[in-house]
Amino acid sequence: MTHIDYLDYYLLTHITYSKQTVKAYRSDLRQMKKNYVEWSVKSLQSYFDYLIQQCKPATAMRRYHALMALGNELVRAKRIKTNPMKQVRPIVHQYVQQREHHPLEETIQTIQKIDHPTYRLFFELISQTGLRFMEARLVSIEDIQFDGLTLLVRHGKGRRLRTVPLGEGLVNRLRIFLRERTTGLVFQSVRGQAINEQSARYALRKQSMIMHGRPLHPHDLRVAFATHLYQIAGCTLVEIQRLLGHGSSRTTEGYILSQETRLRQIMNTLSASAG
Questions:
Q1: How far is C-alpha 126 from the chain's CA centre?
Q2: How many whole angstroms separate alpha carbon 267 and alpha carbon 79?
Q3: CATH assignment of 104-253?
Q4: Is the pLDDT score of 270 beyond 80?
Q5: What's the Cα-to-Cα distance from 16 to each of 123, 157, 262, rounded to whole Å?
Q6: pTM of the model
Q7: Is 104-253 in the same CATH topology as 3-87?
Q8: What letter would DSSP give residue 100?
Q9: 1-5, 81-85, 209-213, 258-262: the lowest-pLDDT one
Q10: Per-residue pLDDT at 37 exceeds 80
Q11: Domain boundaries, the chain
């Protein structure tokens, strides 16, 4: 079994990756195989030099981070001794984020209007802790310290454990939601399994379209959470990095959206004056 074959099987059986992530990572592996890229520093560096010239920056950066994660898995599985991606020059794209910003207050208002109580509390947890979708989906009741107001996140990327604080109001709502249950997943289907990924995403997107005329995705909640902590609450990048479970503050920086509306107003004023 080749490294790529192993990684493809690993992605299909790894429960902590969302379907979107699995699809994207498998596509990256196919492109790697198509371009005859080997798991060596020289081959990988040449590959990314090519990507920088041929692909959009977002594509090259996403593929860089994907292969970094997959290389770490090869090391963990003892298929290679060291991850060659760690010696490949990082891809940096300096720009002001121009994607659409969803203020945290707006996302919370949307979540509160979701009819389904399980999905409503599920997304409330994400919006108030910055958890990844799959991390929240796999949260167990045993991981919640109700008296200490904390949550142990066991299924983070890179096998990184972290403990995040919980607000009193959220903890009280979790108590009511769980009733007498003391074990198992917090968010379950009627069969006791993890909630359906597509149904949960659809509930959030549908409510956002009704209220604001634009879709809202689970990842937008993490971005809104990080941006709010940085711009409004005054948290440091290191604090936000630990809450989000990032391995590098550089990744966290990408989650902090600039106040692009203000910047656009400035640019429009300058261009008008120049005319």
A1: 10
A2: 52
A3: 1.10.443.10
A4: no
A5: 17, 8, 38
A6: 0.68
A7: no
A8: P
A9: 258-262
A10: yes
A11: 3-87, 104-253
For helices 237-244 and 218-231, what crossing angle results, to 10°? 160
- What CA dihedral angle connects 157, 160, 165 and 169, to 10 degrees? 40
What CA–CA distance (Å, rounded) separates 182 from 203? 27
Q: Could you tell me if 66 and 24 are in contact, meaning their C-beta atoms sit under 8 angstroms apart?
A: yes
**H or E element that contains 152:** strand 150-153
- Token pair in block for residue 119: 């999905």
> What value does the mean pLDDT take over residues 114-133?
96
Class of domain 3-87: mainly alpha
In b/e form, how buried is each residue of 192-213, taking b as 16+ CB within 10 angstroms?
Answer: eebbeeeebbebbbebbeeeee
Structure tokens at 75: 């090391």
176: tokens are 């009511």
**CA 160, chain centre distance (Å):** 14
DSSP β-bridge partners for residue 188: 194
What number of other Cβ atoms are within 10 A of residue 12's Cβ?
A: 10
Give the three-state DSSP class for 55.
coil
Q: At residue 118, what is the residue type?
A: T
